[in-house]
């Protein structure tokens, strides 16, 4: 339903006229949005763009930047074009505006062509009804759309171009989107349309970059303080806690039924933590780019409509999400920069009511993030030597985050000073843990220092400990080792989860790719890692390690959550493959037990990686493989949906004696870590025929014993060796195949 139009704003300059204009704008605000008055610098920004001036608007998260282009759209006949980085963000805003009776639309590839055509017809009509048109930067770059904009402009109907989240244009910013770079063409094509750039990113370098890149002319630069007085800042130290999962769970419980966001670095953590919270009676769901669009939308809807209270998410969740009553934002892993932290924690308390930011800091998380950033930095350095300065920036930015966690003194001051704001000592008013409980925080920091020193002396873990600095200094992580990185998504590198953008491709394209081809020196480093692993398992320094291992121990709760994950994955496999001849609950226990047996002593990270890899295996495995691993007996004929095995289902766990885990590997066993097949099995094949052939070549007695005696999950050394062999084998096979192809000039079956 559309509202009746209010008087249009005139561009006038006398004092009275100025007052009248302000009154009209306030009337529009009250009429359409129900707010009493403008906040902060909103009015100045609105007046500037209405007078035709470019404006750069720097406001804190939740400060009300959207209003700076929404009111101008209502104040003048014509269209305001809004460029926004995420489709979800556009959808949300358009929906909210439509609910208020404001004619807003968005154009994106997710719409049906009939919806898009309708919008285009309206735009071409000469008298468009739409007042706010949201588009992606990619669309702006297309010649067709640019000529449409030019046409609208020649009819005098393009009032303003608003670039929301404008920091995305700057490679100095924390959310750089290459597609935003294309927006610089707007000024060439539409030189006299005012441009409004909006961001909550305060770094001066980013500001200058935005102004230059968008070619803003004599812009009015409006900036407000970044202080969020209604947010209480706190850091908890994972290394000093028995169980961070349990700690978060009790914090959330003690707060009552609050709305919260928990950010994690990795998708697996989101899944595990969300399962843990749910199990403890907290209504929660995981949200990350690994879920399909439908699932993500339903999680978002449920959270926005308060059906669930807590979303456990990667950074894919949040940019521009406008739920005002978020009472707590928790970072379960350290964010990559102060800018990211500020943006994400700033999603708390947008209604200006007291809220909380809680960060769980762990030394392992620190190392992991540092490793990811260094890896990304190395990649950038290799791709362009001129970007050296830029590459180092990520580590410098991260150091501010470390200082926030490990340093003493007011947290608020640290945040604001990192953005160049000078802050008085009294500003915080005891609204951070360091100001409210200085002695306690000092004690924690001391304990943390001791714990770090202990870890430095001991060798806590192959990848995550400080003693691996010398390795990761040069060692370029290969995607293939991602299992040991607690990664849940093959083919995507660690950086992806940091960006975790879900709808655009360019960021994904810019991710580090596998470096298998760059072999130089890698073998030595692998050997180094293997030696490290051997040392570790020999437990020579067990006493020194004990403390750390305890901290890293796998709790029953974590095991239960993992079992739940495996059960869910089994259910999905059950759906995908049809009726499975296995008992799901027992099989989940069995698989979890396998992971625990293998990595129970190595600690959470390895154990959790193994769970993750098993989950992935379940998502892609065939019925034969699954039955071989979990079912009652090896089928002597290929198993298919049409020909299920005749033996009745019987849970494997009871059938398997403990010593059988060391028996020789069944050829049809498909380990998620060890995909390599023995040389004799590497003939051209289709998956199913291969499985059935191997099964048929096995004698019945062998077959039944193999089916119950499952192979062990490979150790890190086995995994590394298998990858090496696989690499060598692939090279040999490729050479042979290449020669054959050259000879025959014919394309044959692709060799593995
Ligand atoms: N003048 C106002 N008075 C009261 N509430 C307002 C006012 N202007 C905006 N708001 C409300 O403040 C909330 C935050 O606004 P908005 O989403 O525009 O913030 P933002 O600056 O874009 O934040 P972010 O950086 O997170 O995108 C919204 O719910 C909005 O309706
Ligand atoms: Mg916004």
Automatic annotation (TrEMBL):
Keywords: ATP-binding, DNA-binding, Helicase, Hydrolase, Isomerase, Metal-binding, Nucleotide-binding, Nucleus. SUPFAM superfamilies: P-loop containing nucleoside triphosphate hydrolases. Residues 739-752 have a biased composition (Basic and acidic residues). It catalyses: Couples ATP hydrolysis with the unwinding of duplex DNA by translocating in the 3'-5' direction; ATP + H2O = ADP + phosphate + H(+). Residues 729-738 have a biased composition (Polar residues). Residues 46-220 form the Helicase ATP-binding domain. PROSITE patterns: HELICASE_ATP_BIND_1 (PS51192), HELICASE_CTER (PS51194). GO terms for cellular component: chromosome; cytoplasm; nucleus. GO terms for biological process: DNA replication; double-strand break repair via homologous recombination. Residues 692-715 have a biased composition (Low complexity). Residues 247-396 form the Helicase C-terminal domain. Signal peptide: none annotated. SMART domains: DEXDc, HELICc. It comes from the Eukaryota. Residues 629-752 are annotated as: Disordered. It is found in: Nucleus. GO terms for molecular function: 3'-5' DNA helicase activity; ATP binding; ATP hydrolysis activity; DNA binding; four-way junction helicase activity; metal ion binding. Belongs to the helicase family. RecQ subfamily. This is ATP-dependent DNA helicase. It comes from Populus trichocarpa.
């Amino acid at each position: 339903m559309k509202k009746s139009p209010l008087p249009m704003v005139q561009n006038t300059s006398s004092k009275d006229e100025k007052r009248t204009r302000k009154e009209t704008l306030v009337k529009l605000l009250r009429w359409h949005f129900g707010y009493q008055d403008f906040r902060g610098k909103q009015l100045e920004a609105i007046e500037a763009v209405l007078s035709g001036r470019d404006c750069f608007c720097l406001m804190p998260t939740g400060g009300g930047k959207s209003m700076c282009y929404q009111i101008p759209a209502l104040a003048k006949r014509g269209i305001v074009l809004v460029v926004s980085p995420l489709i979800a963000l556009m959808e949300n805003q358009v929906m909210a505006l439509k609910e208020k009776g404001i004619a807003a639309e968005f154009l994106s590839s997710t719409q049906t062509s009939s919806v898009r055509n309708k919008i285009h017809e309206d735009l071409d009509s000469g008298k468009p009804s739409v007042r706010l048109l949201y588009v992606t930067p990619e669309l702006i770059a297309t010649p067709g759309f640019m000529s449409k904009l030019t046409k609208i402009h020649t009819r005098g109907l393009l009032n303003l171009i608003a670039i929301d989240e404008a920091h995305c244009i700057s490679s100095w910013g924390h959310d750089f989107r290459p597609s935003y770079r294309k927006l610089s063409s707007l000024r060439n094509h539409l030189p006299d349309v005012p441009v409004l750039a909006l961001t909550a990113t305060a770094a001066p370098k980013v500001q200058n970059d935005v102004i230059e890149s968008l070619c803003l002319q004599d812009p009015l630069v409006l900036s407000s303080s970044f202080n969020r007085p209604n947010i209480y800042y706190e850091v908890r130290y994972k290394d000093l806690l028995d169980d961070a999962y349990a700690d978060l769970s009790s914090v959330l419980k003690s707060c009552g039924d609050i709305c919260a966001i928990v950010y994690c670095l990795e998708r697996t953590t989101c899944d595990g933590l969300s399962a843990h919270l749910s199990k403890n009676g907290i209504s929660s769901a995981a949200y990350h780019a690994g879920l399909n669009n439908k699932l993500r939308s339903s999680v978002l809807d449920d959270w926005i409509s308060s059906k669930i209270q807590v979303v456990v998410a990667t950074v894919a969740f949040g940019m521009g999400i406008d739920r005002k009553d978020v009472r707590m934002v928790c970072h379960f892993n350290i964010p990559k920069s102060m800018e990211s932290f500020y943006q994400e924690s700033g999603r708390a308390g947008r209604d200006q009511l007291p809220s909380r930011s809680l960060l769980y800091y762990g030394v392992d998380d620190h190392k992991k993030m540092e490793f990811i950033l260094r890896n990304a930095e190395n990649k950038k350095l290799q791709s362009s030597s001129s970007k050296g300065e830029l590459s180092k920036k990520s580590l410098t930015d991260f150091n501010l985050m470390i200082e926030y966690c490990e340093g003493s003194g007011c947290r608020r001051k640290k945040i604001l000073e990192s953005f160049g704001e000078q802050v008085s000592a009294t500003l915080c008013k005891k609204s951070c843990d360091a100001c409210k409980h200085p002695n306690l925080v000092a004690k924690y920091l001391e304990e943390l220092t001791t714990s770090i020193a202990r870890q430095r002396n001991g060798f806590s873990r192959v990848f995550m400990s400080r003693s691996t600095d010398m390795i990761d200094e040069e060692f370029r992580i290969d995607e293939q080792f991602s299992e040991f990185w607690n990664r849940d998504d093959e083919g995507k590198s660690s950086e992806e989860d940091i960006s975790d953008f879900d709808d655009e491709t360019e960021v994904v394209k810019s991710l580090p790719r596998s470096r298998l081809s760059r072999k130089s020196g890698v073998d030595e480093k692998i050997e180094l890692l293997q030696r490290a692993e051997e040392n570790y398992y020999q437990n020579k320094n067990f006493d020194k390690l004990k403390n750390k291992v305890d901290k890293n121990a796998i709790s029953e709760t974590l095991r239960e959550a993992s079992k739940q994950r495996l059960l869910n994955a089994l259910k999905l496999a059950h759906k995908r493959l049809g009726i499975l001849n296995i008992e799901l609950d027992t099989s989940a226990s069995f698989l979890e037990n396998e992971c625990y047996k293998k990595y129970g002593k190595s600690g959470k990270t390895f154990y959790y990686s193994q769970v993750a890899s098993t989950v992935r295996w379940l998502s892609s495995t065939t019925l034969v493989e699954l039955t071989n691993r979990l079912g009652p007996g090896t089928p002597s004929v290929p198993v298919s949906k049409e020909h299920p095995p005749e033996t009745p289902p019987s849970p494997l766990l009871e059938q398997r004696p403990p010593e059988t885990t060391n028996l020789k590997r069944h050829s049809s066993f498909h380990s998620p870590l060890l995909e390599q097949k023995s040389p004799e099995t590497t003939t051209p094949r289709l998956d199913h025929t291969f499985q059935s052939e191997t099964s048929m070549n096995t004698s019945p007695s062998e077959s039944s014993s193999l089916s119950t005696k499952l192979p062990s999950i490979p150790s890190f050394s086995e995994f590394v060796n298998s990858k090496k062999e696989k690499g060598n084998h692939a090279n040999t096979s490729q050479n042979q195949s290449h020669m054959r192809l050259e000879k025959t000039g014919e394309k044959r079956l692709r060799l593995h």
